[in-house]
Amino acid sequence: MSSTERADGPAGGTEEEFVQEWRNAAYNCYSSGHKFCREVCPVMQVTRNEVHTPTAFHANVVAMEKGLLSIADVARDYVHCTGCGACELRCPNTLFTGDFYRFRTRTVQLVKAVRALAVDQGIHQPGWQRWVEETSRQKSEPVLGGEVPVSQEHVRDWAAGLDLPTGGETILFCDCEGAFHRTSVPRAAAKILKAAGVEFGLMREQWCCGGPAAEMGYVERAKEFARHNVDDWRAVGAKRIIVFDPHDYISFTEDYPNYFGDEFDFEIVLFVELLAELIREGRLPLTNPVDRVVTYHDACRLNKRKGIHAAPREVLRAIPGLTFKDVDHVTQWSYCSGAGGGLPIERPDLTAEISRRRVERAAELDVDTLVSACVWSERPLTEQGGKRADPIEVLDLLEIVALSAGLA
Q: Among the ranges 77-91, 144-158, 186-200, 331-345, which has the highest mean pLDDT value?
């Protein structure tokens, strides 16, 4: 806990309550003894440190129940998780659900619960604490690097010149990274929707989705962002929310329903699935050949967490002139970028190494471009791709589709 700060915090959940809620999940993992999860964990692949394994994350709960550990002893260990979900897919408890074990592993939710308990107990990771405080101040994430002015005044700058309306039944939600860093992605998204005849508008005042704050343990802050966004959607009569970022998609399909229950009745549409539909129906002609050799990077929150891997491949195969070389591992063994779960904030060194390894996997396929559908993944992948003697360019799926549709 050398880099963990202890401070007085608001009253929250107790360790006893936490253990009571999570002991069954912990014993199901701890008693099985399987280590399938270790070798698919992107952090463990780099650190080879047993305390960073999903097995250890569950075993700690058992130790806490027996009084051998406290949250203060282990809080820092739980920084070492990207929330990719690979461990859950490889766990025998999940593989045999409904057959033998009848239990699905919930490691991602356990990690979030431990982080929330730490915050409730006044134990903060300094980088995460600063990040969430700045997000609360500016209503958008500060964006890694700090070179971009992040504020409500600039949250719609990416849409300059596109003449996009405010409000309507369909809202395009632009995540913080897209709004302030990789602005070419939301611009491509808006142009694609307009070209396909999809009517949509923007929010009156868009705040962060709150997902990163929730993942770092700041659940009450996350709920504040969620409440604002939901109220804004209702105020403009929105019924359908289109998102292009997988992290937003997780927030809106998992966190928000948990926060609001039946009150949350919005249709959440993932852009990549809508995109495949628009191309399939002939509403978005792809007529310009794109002379590139590409492979696809599966965003963990789409592939491993949501099982979405067919739609982006359908889109890539529809682009004329494109040579698409698929990766050898598509589902639970697919490669992580290291960009999720707050890891780049507290352990940028690990994110860099995980991304470097991912880019090297792409290089083995003799491609010149790595395509992703996650703006958060694209930053570290771009950095590592550019460092190679033979650079690999990283493009978002929407950017390359816009090229083929003549919208770039």
A: 186-200
Q: List the chain domain ranges.
A: 5-124, 127-277, 283-404
Whether 127-277 and 283-404 share one fold: the answer is yes
Backbone angles phi, psi at 71, to 5 degrees: -60, -30
Number of C-alpha atoms within 13 angstroms, CB side, residue 108?
A: 24
Query: What CATH architecture is 127-277?
Result: 3-Layer(aba) Sandwich (3.40)
**Higher per-residue confidence, 113 vs 307:** 113
Kindly state the tokens that stand for 274. Answer: 């809508």
State how far the Cα of 325 lies from the Cα of 296, in Å rounded to an integer.
8
**Contact yes or no for 217/115 (Cβ under 8 A):** yes
Residue 346: what residue type? E
Of 270, 354, 314, 382, the C-alpha closest to 82 is 354
CATH 3.60.21.10 fits 283-404, yes or no: no
Contacts of 126 (CB under 8 A, 6+ apart): 3, 4, 5
Is the alpha carbon torsion for 82, 84, 90, 95 positive or negative? Answer: positive
Tell me how far apart the alpha carbons of residues 4 and 266 are, in angstroms, rounded to a whole number: 39
Confirm whether pTM is higher than 0.85: yes
**198 DSSP assignment:** -
DSSP 246-275: HHHHHIIIIIHHHHHGGG--PEEEEHHHHH
